[in-house]
Design a protein that fits this description.
Layout lengths: L1 E6 L5 H12 L4 E6 L4 H8 L4 E4 L6 H6 L5 E4 L9 H6 L3 E4 L5 H16 L15 E5 L3 H12 L3 E5 L5 H6 L3 E2 L3 H6 L3 E4 L13 H4 L7 E4 L8 H10 L4 E4 L6 H7 L4 E3 L9 H21 L9
Parallel strand pairs: 1-2, 1-3, 3-4, 4-5, 6-7, 6-9, 7-8, 9-10, 10-11, 11-12
The chain binds 3-phosphoglyceric acid.
3-phosphoglyceric acid binds next to loops.
């Protein structure tokens, strides 16, 4: 069996070594396509492989159809919004993710950005402490849970809202569940966004949600840029000069944020949430393991398409 690892944003070497070990242990061949810049390279590379491991790489219908022998795609990570799931189902290709494997890395970056935000970008002016502040966790999945764990160490109060996670589950972790997104934003000093990108969440965070925030609130986004209505966020920031937006996914209108609200805005130059050796190793090896387990034993535990 041939397994292609296609990553525009490459894994750490330790992750590739682990993937190789996992695959060579069952006589599967590893093919690497890293830092590719042209879609044609991906179309050529996928042509004769049985399995594909990707990160945020766009896997559309054309790529799926180019993989004539393709049986499984594993997204080494959580969000599968980069993969055309319908096209995969139509082509009889199984799609999986590796839930939780990079969650701690993303959660740690939330606090990296959070401290930077409350300390006014280390500008020399007096900032605030996290202790005693209310952190609203917008979606209580694997990343949200890790954020909650770390926040307790800072002495923060915790609130969470999740459309799909029952309030009792959130409550059982000692966190106050809110009854709506609106109440989450109303009662938080800082909101950390962890919603996946779906039809329902695209552009969700705009003026109707932002207007509920308290003066001086902060929004941290390590999820997806598409869940933000960027023009409405920018307008809100212009009207609320104490509000800050910290993001790990550069907005489409980055230049406008830089021009109009430079002291309220920070973005990482490249999405860095899961870019740790540990997360690469965890997610990469889990992906290789899931491929072997699917092809040899038919295990579909982490399947995300129909
Ligand atoms: C995910 O969905 O797992 C995270 O957003 C990480 O994405 P990345 O692998 O592209 O860094």
């Amino acid at each position: 069996m041939k397994v292609l690892v296609a990553t525009q944003k490459p894994f750490a070497k330790a992750a590739i070594d682990g993937i190789r070990q996992e695959l060579e242990g069952v006589d599967y061949e590893l093919i690497l396509l890293e830092k590719y810049s042209d879609k044609q390279q991906l179309l050529d590379a996928v042509a004769d492989v049985d399995a594909l491991i990707v990160r945020s790489d766009v896997i559309d219908k054309e790529v799926i159809q180019a993989g004539e022998n393709l049986k499984i795609i594993v997204r080494a990570g959580a969000g599968c919004d980069n993969i055309d799931l319908k096209a995969a189902t139509e082509a009889d290709v199984c799609v999986m993710n590796t839930p939780g494997q990079n969650a701690n890395a993303v959660a740690e970056l939330v606090f990296g950005m959070l401290v930077m935000g409350v300390r006014n970008f280390y500008s020399g002016s007096s900032g605030f402490e996290l202790k005693g502040k209310r952190l609203g966790i917008h979606a209580y999945g694997n990343v949200g849970k890790n954020v909650a764990r770390i926040a307790r160490g800072f002495g923060m109060e915790l609130l969470a809202y999740d459309t799909y996670c029952r309030a009792e589950v959130i409550n059982a972790d000692g966190i106050d569940p809110t009854i709506s997104v609106k109440t989450l934003y109303q009662h938080s000093d800082i909101v950390s966004v962890h919603i996946p990108l779906t039809k329902e969440t695209r552009g969700l965070i705009g003026k109707s949600i932002l207007k509920n925030l308290r003066e001086g609130a902060m929004l941290i986004n390590t999820a997806r840029k598409e869940v933000i209505n960027e023009p409405e966020l920018l307008q809100y920031m212009i009207e609320n000069p104490k509000f800050k937006y910290m993001t790990d996914i550069k907005p489409d209108i980055h230049d406008q944020f830089m021009e109009k609200v430079p002291n309220q805005y920070f973005t990482t130059p490249k999405k860095m949430g899961s870019q740790t050796v540990e997360a690469n190793v965890n997610a990469g090896i889990a992906a290789a393991h899931q491929i072997v387990d699917y092809l040899k034993n038919g295990n579909q535990k982490y399947r995300v398409n129909d």
